[in-house]
Amino acid sequence: MKDIVIERVLDFPRAMVWEALTQSDHLAAWLMPNDFRPVLHHRFTFKTAPAPGFDGIVRCEVLDIDPPERLAISWRGGPLDTIVRFHLQDEGTKTRLTVRHEGFAGLANLIPRFALGLGWKDLIARKLPAYVGTLQHVA
Predict the structure, then answer these.
(1) How far apart are CA 41 and CA 63, in angstroms?
(2) I want to staple 95 with a disulfide (CB 3.0 to 4.6 A). Which of 14, 31, 63, 119 is the partner?
(3) What are 100-125's pLDDT values in tens digits?
(4) What range defines the domain where residue 125 resides?
């Protein structure tokens, strides 16, 4: 099954986007409540509303982190055992953000993959940029 890949150029410097991706309170504002810390192998959770076959908890671990360029986390919840990768590149004064959610396998992942594909598109196109726009400039 195909990975979800979203790429977008955001009108903000990479440091601001990185902060929104790696500070727990910032992640909570545009993604979900969490206990994330930007530390390799840190285990944390995202919490959302339960759904059939899903208790509302996404269990994660920081698998890779290279500030302010890359972050990879495991993403386990319901039938999913996947990985989400964030890659940030400078584009002048803007940031090219690529989000790759990978590891969807089997028919049990078909509906979650579809739902997450729509969700990531909305998050990266609307919610993340709107939130980053509220942050003070990060040097």
Answers:
(1) 6
(2) 14
(3) 999 999 888 999 999 999 999 999 99
(4) 4-132
Q: Report the 10 Å Cβ neighbour count for 9.
A: 12
CA dist 8 and 1 (Å) reads 22
Give the E-state strand segments of the chain in sequence order.
4-10, 43-47, 57-66, 70-77, 80-91, 94-102
Other C-beta atoms closer than 10 Å to the C-beta of 16 total: 21
- Alpha carbon distance 60, 37 (integer Å): 11
pTM: 0.95
Instruction: Please report whether residue 114 resides in a domain.
Output: yes
Do the domain assignments include residue 139? no
Counts for the chain of helices (H) and strands (E), in that order = 4, 6
Residue 109: closest CA among 78, 73, 84, 133? 78
CATH number at residue 11: 3.30.530.20
Domain count, the chain: 1
Q: Let me know if residue 138 belongs to a domain.
A: no
CA gap 21, 28 in Å, rounded: 10
Task: Evaluate whether residue 20 is within a structural domain.
Answer: yes
